[in-house]
Amino acid sequence: MTAIAGTCCSPIAREPLSETDAAELAALLKAVADPVRLRLLSMIGSHPGGEACVCDLTDAFELTAPTISHHLKVLRTAGLIGSERRGTWVYYWIIPQQVARLGELFTPLAEPAVTG
């Protein structure tokens, strides 16, 4: 598959996805296809300093700590966020390259696709 400069794969408007790209991107889409996980990703990404403590995230939801941990694990497993334990707390940050893959997938192109 030929990638557009700076992207991992071509947007779907340019050419069909390979099986590998489709499987990888589907996992990312599945990870954010939940309102809680989408909010968590947004909260982490917009947090001052670029990272958020789990203690800053749990109060925003009427969910148990294990449920929040599960959602964070799904985002981490998909590679959308990274984490580090510091003492009692775990801090999370966005992995920009992975989040950018989602945006690039649907980026409209200035040039129409070439048909053959």
Descriptive overview:
The chain is elongated, with a radius of gyration of 17 Å. Helix 2 (35-46) crosses helix 4 (65-77). A hairpin with a 2-residue loop joins strand 2 and strand 3. By secondary structure, it is α+β, with helices and mostly antiparallel strands. The chain has one domain (19-105): Arc Repressor Mutant, subunit A. The two termini are 17 Å apart. Mean pLDDT is 85; it is low at 1-7. The chain is built from five helices and three strands; from the N terminus they run ααβααββα.
Please summarize what this structure is.
The chain has 116 residues and is α+β, with helices and mostly antiparallel strands.
Topology:
Blueprint: H1 19-32, H2 35-46, E1 51-53, H3 54-57, H4 65-77, E2 81-86, E3 89-94, H5 96-105
Antiparallel strand pairs: 1-3, 2-3
Features of the shown structure:
5 helices, 13% strand, 116 residues, three-stranded antiparallel β-sheet, disordered N terminus, alpha+beta, Arc Repressor Mutant, subunit A
